[in-house]
Specification:
2 domains; elongated; Recoverin, domain 1; 65% helix; Mitochondrial carrier fold
Length: 468
């Protein structure tokens, strides 16, 4: 082991560390002691480190604690992992990690950090002021830290499945090989789907109002938020505010599953076994995966719009609506508005990722000193702002899509193509006409994110999803 001391010296050092962590001097380390010790020693997040230290693998006699021998065995395995990780970062294999190697490692994960930020990270570990990190400094800094591989840094900055604001144009999550092998990926997808279902149901009245205003609002009727709500309630009662929500929830599962599988296949087809993609590569793979998922489930999008806009008694249910569309308009009706919908993926996903990366890098450079973990509030804020910006960019295409989906069901509405409809809206209502219904769309963002976060965290606990 390069730069490592002998076994006797190592055991002596680990013994001193054990004594320092064993605050009640009972010869055993429990979760509480490890948490306190990690917090005192600055070993990263105490909760994640504690959960990893007191684990079935480390606790040989399964008594919920570690004695000295178990602790030493755990640290031996830990050092081996850390040495492999040290070598992977030490690109020129000179026994030291310098600033440029830190920047290269972050860049490989799609995270661009400044020279100043890389120096801050280096200073947090560099005890001898050489502006490099040797094996001993690296080992002592991360020995009780939850870092497992370089991708763990990226874990904190993934687009979180928790952010469901009713639009499914986002780039899918990245899952590590460990998450795929342990089955955590599908548990996270299930937790995300449940969070999305509850979130969409909670904000369904605002979503229906958005669709209602997209189709019916104009310069002449001056339909606003209160007027739209009043009109819907007068026509069908309070329950009518949830029209179309059933199929909106129903399409979460197939769309998420198709998008995830397509994303993984596209990644392998284009970039082989590369574990982590750069931002531009994620955009390409995510856009193609989104287009694939939308192509397959698009008939459900048309049904959702028709059911959302239906009058009382117009359809008996989902199957009746589908049958009537097929009978009266033919199978092509199920793909009305498909082109603007697919085109909308590009500005949405591109701006969503670009804004997210910009906000993330700004936070890293200004506020992150020795940790890659930004905390949940920063993640939620970055995700919410970036998704909102993506929506603003793609909203005109979303409005054209909705109007094309609804054309045949609205009496007297012209049957126009995408470009024809765009020209018609601009000539009749101007640019503002392309943003009808955007106010209720913005109103639902914060409650949707809040609801989905709370449900997601509870579902993770129920499904036994572990956080690193």
């Amino acid at each position: 082991m390069r730069g490592g001391p002998g076994d006797a010296e190592r055991r002596e050092r680990w013994g001193r560390l054990f004594e320092e962590l064993d605050s009640n001097k009972d010869g055993r380390l429990d979760v509480h002691e490890l948490r306190q010790g990690l917090a005192r020693l600055g070993g990263g997040s105490p909760d994640r480190g504690a959960q990893q230290g007191i684990s079935p693998e480390g606790d040989a006699d399964s008594d919920g604690g570690l004695d000295l021998e178990e602790f030493i065995l755990y640290l031996q395995e830990r050092e081996q992992r850390l040495l492999l990780l040290f070598h992977s970062l030490d690109r020129n294999q000179d026994g030291h990690i310098d600033v440029s190697e830190i920047q290269q490692s972050f860049r490989a994960l799609g995270i661009s950090i400044s020279l100043e930020q890389a120096e801050k990270i280096l200073h947090s570990m560099d005890r001898d002021d050489t502006m490099t990190i040797d094996w001993q400094e690296w080992r002592d800094h991360f020995l009780l830290h939850s870092l497992e591989n370089v991708e763990d840094v990226l874990y904190f900055w993934k687009h979180s499945t928790v952010l469901d604001i009713g639009e499914c144009l986002t780039v899918p999550d990245e899952f590590s090989e460990q998450e795929k092998l342990t089955g955590m990926w599908w548990k996270q997808l299930v937790a995300g789907a449940m969070a999305g279902a509850v979130s969409r149901t909670g904000t369904a009245p605002l979503d229906r109002l958005k669709v209602f205003m997209q189709v019916h609002a104009s310069k002449t009727n001056r339909l606003n938020i209160l007027g739209g709500l009043r009109s819907m309630i007068q026509e069908g009662g309070v329950r009518s505010l949830w029209r179309g929500n059933g199929i909106n929830v129903l399409k979460i599962a197939p769309e998420s599953a198709i998008k995830f599988m397509a994303y993984e296949q596209i990644k392998r087809a284009i970039w082989g076994q590369q574990e982590t993609l750069h931002v531009q590569e994620r955009f390409v793979a995510g856009s193609l995966a989104g287009a694939t998922a939308q192509t397959i489930i698009y008939p459900m999008e048309v049904l959702k719009t028709r059911l959302t806009l239906r009058r009382t008694g117009q359809y008996k249910g989902l199957l009746d609506c589908a049958w009537r569309i097929l009978e009266r308009e033919g199978p092509r009706a199920f793909y009305r508005g498909y082109l603007p919908n697919v085109l909308g993926i590009i500005p949405y996903a591109g701006i969503d990722l670009a804004v997210y990366e910009t906000l993330k890098n700004r936070w890293l450079q200004q506020y992150s000193h020795d940790s890659a973990d930004p905390g949940i509030l920063v993640l939620l804020a970055c995700g919410t702002i970036s998704s909102t910006c993506g929506q603003i960019a793609s909203y005109p295409l979303a409005l054209v899509r909705t109007r094309m989906q609804a054309q045949a069901s609205v009496e007297g509405a012209p049957q126009l193509s995408m470009l024809g409809l765009l020209r018609h809206i601009l000539s009749q209502e101007g640019v503002r006409g392309l943003y009808r219904g955007i106010a209720p769309n913005f109103m639902k963002v914060i409650p949707a994110v809040s609801i989905s976060y709370v449900v997601y965290e509870n579902m993770k606990q129920a499904l036994g999803v572990t956080s690193r």
